[in-house]
């Protein structure tokens, strides 16, 4: 509970099953608080995020424990790696004490109303909390009232005591602490006398010298981290809803990806329960899973380690316990038996795309393509076209192989490509082209290319082009006028297939000598 007339926890218990959200924008003159300089930045989705290095000052309250079965981060209290835990504010809405001022998760359109809970994205992180001044007056969090009314903030022997605490819950209540003070922390009651000063617990700060003191705090990596992450299925998880909790994290969690047998897929967070994610199996209808986890910086934890596990037999009809722990096997990123792809090359560019090809890795079931170090797509073949790019811009690519168990290879050689200058709707404007390997034999292959009109008017003609990565050479072609100069191939329409209506398509084919692995997945096309 809280040391004030307000029953701060009642409202939150009813909200756990719905949704949460957070971020921050400080408006401190109302708060009766001081704050260090705030360092914020815009995230890709429009959120404003607190810099790890900033130290914030706010009011601290306390509460007895997490809700049942889950706290605001989606983890049962008994399964936290520490019982020293905190809650962060869902909203930052000074003067607005409505029950729920925005939906949860907080939509991006309301980013300026989010608090540091950050829609669950700060769950599983650690904060270092330092005790500040004591209030000699009234500090009850009353709506629209100043903090520490009719009194002063004063230091005493407990100032400077510290404790590292785990973010495990959210504060969405309708009081001034949870709405007016963006740097408010709600601390576990049993942790208050565990704060350390001079190497020993303070022991007697609470209750007599508490009165919702000032604290300062900042995010830190997990202190003294060792071992590895923990994974468990949540209540009611089953093959039709494989939802897991991920805990014991080295530096928070900003995403989980699962392997579906051919590619890595981003898992969805359950509402804003920041440590619960719904994953998918290695094969359709299966009960075996492989995941990898991204930390608060977007980096894969443990260097890209993958974790493979199965749904326990006790969960066949749905897990009955709030948390059912599972064991797993691991495969370290880039340290498996797969060889890295070789001979990565750029086969074509346009104003908005780059086409790549590479040589196969023995034992690979697919490949992950990375642009400037970030994954942009997966394929089971040995070619890929990265689309939606900016004109006249340089990009660097690598490729990693993966196998059916989710193991990955080291990265291929890197290549750089610069997209062409935009011509106001030229290359790749209003069309798409895709290849299909029809047949192959030692020394040659047959392929088809399907061209689709993605525009709004009927074409008067078309052009498709690509570059071979090796010594491939077209020998015959049909339904097109096709020429090859060196490694560059150009295919033009013939009279009877020049007019392609909107959403219509046409197909041409060819025979070629050489290795079929050099066939580009998406050649560059132009409609006339």
Provide a descriptive summary of the structure in words.
- By secondary structure, this protein is an all-beta fold.
- 2% of the residues lie in helices and 38% in strands.
- It has a six-stranded mixed β-barrel. It has a five-stranded antiparallel sheet with strand order 17-18-14-13-21, with no helix packed on it.
- A hairpin with a 2-residue loop joins β34 and β35.
- The longest helix has 8 residues.
- The N terminus is likely disordered.
Write the layout of secondary structure elements.
Layout: H1 8-15, E1 40-42, E2 48-50, E3 56-63, E4 85-89, E5 126-131, E6 134-135, E7 153-154, E8 162-171, H2 176-180, E9 185-188, E10 196-197, E11 200-201, E12 214-220, E13 230-234, E14 243-247, E15 255-259, E16 264-266, E17 268-270, E18 273-278, E19 288-294, E20 306-310, E21 323-325, E22 329-331, E23 342-349, E24 354-359, E25 366-371, E26 374-379, E27 383-386, E28 394-402, E29 415-418, E30 431-441, E31 444-453, E32 462-467, E33 473-478, E34 481-485, E35 488-492, E36 505-513, E37 524-527
Parallel strand pairs: 3-9, 4-8
Antiparallel strand pairs: 1-2, 3-12, 4-9, 5-8, 5-12, 6-7, 10-11, 13-14, 13-21, 14-18, 15-16, 15-19, 17-18, 19-20, 20-22, 23-24, 24-27, 25-26, 25-28, 28-29, 30-31, 31-36, 32-35, 32-37, 33-36, 34-35
